[in-house]
Design goal:
Structural class: mainly beta
Number of strands: 9
Order of helices and strands: HEEEEEEEEE
Strand content: 35-45%
Distance between the termini: 63 Å
Number of helices: 1
Helix content: 10-25%
Largest sheet: 5 strands, mixed
Shape: globular
Radius of gyration: 19 Å
């Protein structure tokens, strides 16, 4: 026998679907790539447009783990050796945002420069 869902449960299902909907558009977000090799970021300077959310794809080509960290971006993420992670950032105001590998601070640093699009 079919029983309709209680109103609260039905509402919760609808709200859950609506909250999940923005992830369906994640492919529309621009993507920028950083590679870590020999404990150095490549590129060390990454330009992104201001006022726009973006994906930062960090590929650790070293065999050892590293930790992407930025105080200005309020992010930290451990990335095991020979793996890739995606970090969602922005929208950013115009400016420079430093980042580093917390496990290798002296050699692995970089900056994201957010600039208005021309």
């Amino acid at each position: 026998m079919f029983r309709p869902l209680p109103a609260r449960l039905a509402l919760a299902c609808v709200l859950g679907a609506l909250l999940a909907a923005p992830t369906a558009f994640a492919g529309d977000i621009p993507s920028y790539k950083l590679v870590v090799k020999n404990h150095k970021f490549q590129p060390q300077k990454l330009a992104v447009p201001t006022g726009q959310q973006f994906k930062l794809v960090v590929e650790n080509q070293d065999a050892t783990p590293m930790e992407f960290e930025s105080y200005e971006l309020d992010r930290e993420k451990v990335i095991v050796g020979d793996s890739t992670v995606t970090i969602y950032l922005g929208p950013l105001d115009t400016g420079a945002y430093k980042f580093f590998d917390d496990f290798h601070r002296s050699t692995t640093t970089g900056v994201i420069e957010a600039k208005p699009q021309k």
